[in-house]
Amino acid sequence: MGSSSHLQRPSGPNRTVSASSFAEAFSIARRNLEDEISHELPVTSSELPSPALSSSDAPSTPALSASNLTTPASLVTPLTEAQTPSLVDSGYDDNIADNFAFAFDIDGVLVRGGRPIPEAIEAMKVLNGENEYGVRVPYIFLTNGGGKTEEERCEDLSKQLELTVSPGQFICGHTPMRELADKYTGSVLVVGGEGEKCRSVAEQYGFKDVITPGDIIKANAATAPFRKLTDLEHTNSRDLLERHGVEKLSDIVIEAIFVFADSRDWASDLQIILDIAMSKGGRLETRSETFEEGPPIYFSHSDVVWSAAHEHVRLGMGALRRIVETVFTDVTGGKKLETHAFGKPQVSTFEFATRLLQQWRTTQHGLVAARRPLDTVYFVGDTPESDIRGTNAMDAKSKHTSWYSVLVKTGVYEDGTEPAYKPRVLVETVLDAVNHGIEREMRRRRAKQSQRDAKNQGGLMQKLANITVQDMS
Predict the structure, then answer these.
(1) Taking all residues of the chain, what is their mean pLDDT, rounded to a whole number?
(2) What is the reported pTM?
């Protein structure tokens, strides 16, 4: 070649990793990327790490006692979000279900005729950790029944289910009525229940002057011509004129009527409720010319029937409510009486239950709503018209928590019939309901884990594809 200049062979690229150690470097890079991805990916409320659940380390049913159960000081306004410093400080247990819970009706679901339904005891054990996943699930009780204090009802249910039930996880039909004690500070009529129990409940709620039908009959026996007070009833009933310092009953004004529990004497209770509904502004033994001056009337629930010991359902408070409204129209020449009801299926009762459940999750299980949001509540009931209807209505209204309705065949619902309000699922017993809910949550948890794994793997492969390994050879 005559020319002194010639093409030079380009030098090879600088080499930072020897060929023999390439696999090791790749492995190191992969591990580093996995660490980066695990720190970069946001964790949403629905993607909180799943507890390490296994059947081998499943805890036994915890020994519950009154000393280790935290009961809210008041249920007047249950905390929407209880104040707990941190999950660590509150002793949060990874084996607690942090995103779902259960709520139960009682009669026809857990108890019938005062005796526990056999599967109910086993269902409670499953919720308390005796399941293949070793997970314990928070739960509350929401019943339309009443007539006793929440503490007494909890004592009864504790014996029936063979565990300790706290008032902090219990709502009966008249529990929300305590929120009206500050509104009606004068005289109120309380109807229903055995003896003086409902008066005692109302006074514990904060009502200042509680009058019963027995008090009125004692003051004027002609009020209920077919009802004669027993000696005990006469003794327990109060002297209204002396107590109020008045000379005649018309000086006593009833601000509101509360039917706390099922009536023990429908005829006399009906007569007295109608008398006051037709009165001049709630004044006893008066009559309004317009029949539009009576005080408000509240029923703790509106169940027409309920499941008792008898093979067929029995009439409940809802039947009395309808009779009061119908007879009022008949005796007033067509006037309409509007009454109010708490309990199921009213959405306000389910909203009250949501607040109570959030508080119970925090005080008992260390689950702060802001950090461990409640995704699903499984409500188990036996009455389509109240349990299922109310649950579905709450689910439609709730923005953050799904209410999942489960109907059992052990109570009011008659197997083989078409329920007036359709549940999400129909099962045989409460044990089947509990197993269904837990299995459903475990499937959802596995599906979310698979999605996270796929997302993590996709991000890892994308970053690995961008790695440039310079080859010096």
Answers:
(1) 81
(2) 0.70
